[in-house]
Automatic annotation (TrEMBL):
InterPro entries membership: A-crystallin/Hsp20_dom, HSP20-like_chaperone, Small_HSP
Annotated source species: Paenibacillus xerothermodurans
Stretches assigned to the SHSP domain: 32-146
Family to which the UniProt record says this protein belongs: Belongs to the small heat shock protein (HSP20) family.
Designated name of the protein: Hsp20/alpha crystallin family protein
Amino acid sequence: MPLVPFEPLRHVENWKKELDRVFNESIPAAFGFNPEFSTPRTDVYETAAHVIAICEIPGLENKEDVHIHVDNQTLKIHGVINRFNEVQEDQMHRRERYAGKFQRSIALPSPVEAEGTVAAYKNGILEVRMPKSRPEQGQRIDIDFQ
């Protein structure tokens, strides 16, 4: 009687984990794509007067590297993170810091106005503060009653 029960598929889970590791780390990195950062992580909340989006975008060096567009109930952020090779490629053992293009479109909870929107970047965090649109007051229409 064997001490270990017969389980013909017990190694399949290990093979699956190894294949996931290879395809998630090696192949995307070879093509310059990092699925963990291609869309910045974002928090969106609102106050009485503003909708505020806070995005993690570490590595920006110039304000020209990021573009922000506000359109009614959508915030679009896109740009590029440039990294200069500090180490030669043949000496690199592991690369986890992202470099390349990123983009994100975010649906906002309330209509906002582009005019008056301000953005600030500090310590890898981009904060976009957008004023809420004021509901347009309807205008009374007189009826020509005959």
